[in-house]
Specification:
Elements: E1 3-9, H1 16-23, E2 25-27, E3 37-42, E4 48-49, E5 56-58, H2 59-66, E6 73-77, E7 79-85, H3 109-112, H4 118-123, E8 127-140, E9 145-148, E10 156-160, E11 165-168, H5 169-179, E12 183-191
């Protein structure tokens, strides 16, 4: 039996507050081929983020992935729709709570309650959506069982009916080695 993993953001004790600060929010119009529109904090952006189950990388991560030998994906430039200034990267990440909570306590208000900064947006540099290929389908959501449509499967992929991105063991090892602080994995069952 092959191994595959749901590929996602690393968890943190700050929960949804951490998720919004690290990953931000991403939206796409009704056409799947439209560019992803990103709303997030800056000027710091991690090299790999997962806003709303999408997968975004910075220029350096894109370059490293391009020469990694990993297969099953392409890149599309992200539109930086709303970038706000929050220096959360300077906070104590080991603290029980974030240094500042957003207005009205809702995590999204870190972004929604602030104004876009073109200066901060330009400091982020280019950001890229990593788009994995579709190769399989979900058999059972409860048991996280999937069936791959091709063999061998690419290193990074999506399956029909499931919003997550998936990786095989080879890709998991590469991401853990290069970006372990920012990524998490949950094993799924793969049937032939």
């Amino acid at each position: 039996m092959k191994r595959a993993y749901i590929f996602e953001s690393a968890e943190h004790d700050w929960g949804d507050y951490w998720d919004i600060l690290v990953n931000g929010m991403a939206f796409r119009g009704p056409d799947a081929d439209e560019p992803l529109e990103l709303e997030r904090s800056g000027p710091f952006v991690p090299p790999i983020t997962f806003p709303m189950s999408e997968l975004i990388v910075d220029d350096e991560c894109k370059r490293r992935l391009s020469i990694s030998g990993l297969t099953g994906f392409e890149f599309r430039r992200v539109i930086k729709k709303k970038i706000v200034s929050i220096n959360w990267h300077e906070w104590d990440w080991t603290a029980e709570d974030p240094r500042k909570y957003p207005s009205q306590g809702e995590p999204e208000n870190y972004i929604d309650a602030r104004k876009h900064s073109e200066k901060i947006a330009s400091q982020l540099g280019d950001l890229w959506e990593l788009i994995p290929v579709f190769i399989g389908s979900v058999i059972d959501r409860k048991t996280k069982t999937i069936k791959l449509g091709i063999d061998p499967a690419p290193d990074i992929f999506r399956i029909n009916g499931y919003g997550y991105k998936f990786v095989n063991t080879h890709a998991k090892d590469w991401f853990e080695k290069n970006y372990g602080q920012w990524v998490g994995f949950r094993e799924v069952t793969v049937i032939e």
